[in-house]
Amino acid sequence: MFTLSQFPLPYSYDALAPYMSPETLELHHGKHVATYIKNLNNLIQDTPYESVSLYEIIKTSVDDKSNPNAQKIFNNAAQVFNHQFFFNGMCRDCGGQIPAEIKNAFGGEDEFKKKFKDAATNLFGSGYTWLVRDGDEIKIINMQNADTPIAHNMVPLMNLDVWEHAYYVDYQNRRADFVDNYLNHMVDWDQVAENLKQ
Question: Do 44 and 81 reside in the same domain of the chain?
């Protein structure tokens, strides 16, 4: 069974201010992620999923036809993974350079940021904008709700949570401003570079 302490926030609640407030982080990590973990534990209790890793749960439940709760299990497990990946990929103005491999894939840093922002602001409803490696290609994709690249054999490099709870306290309906601050002040490019090595 899983606990919130297994998925710690890698910094204090005020570490990303003013771009992301302590209130948002406390709500997002302390409440939303905790709820996904609680739901997941309830769903996997007394099932084979109870004794495997989060990664294995995601990879197996996405196509599991034998368990009537498989979709719910996938959604909650994937949301725990997606959130942890999101939180671990941020820091406030911590320096680092966008990797050359990404700049080369999109025609430069400005063009990459423009394409990522376009994707994130145009994702309808809830979900994530991801930068992934898909085979030999690096690309930007939108995924609805809890869907996650690891369920589709893609390597996640960075992600932006654009569910409303990720930004509404700080930005209300100004998703574009949230995306700008994420790209210009919160991405941990050193972590993205590490992810590229996977």
Answer: yes
Its domain, for residue 56, covers 21-88
Asked if the structure places residue 15 within a domain, the reply is: no
User: Looking at the predicted structure, is the pLDDT value of residue 158 above 90?
Assistant: yes
First vs last Cα of the chain: how many Å apart? 27
Domain count, the chain: 2
State the CATH number of the domain containing residue 143.
3.55.40.20
Q: Phi and psi (nearest 5°) for 90?
A: -125, 155
Burial of 37-54, coded b for 16+ CB within 10 Å and e otherwise, reads bebbeebbeeeebeeeeb
125 plus 74 within the same structural domain = no
> Are the C-beta atoms of 96 and 87 separated by less than 8 Å?
no
Instruction: Kindly report the pTM of this predicted structure.
Output: 0.96
pLDDT, tens digit, for every residue of 95-147? 899 999 999 999 999 999 999 999 999 999 999 999 999 999 999 999 999 99
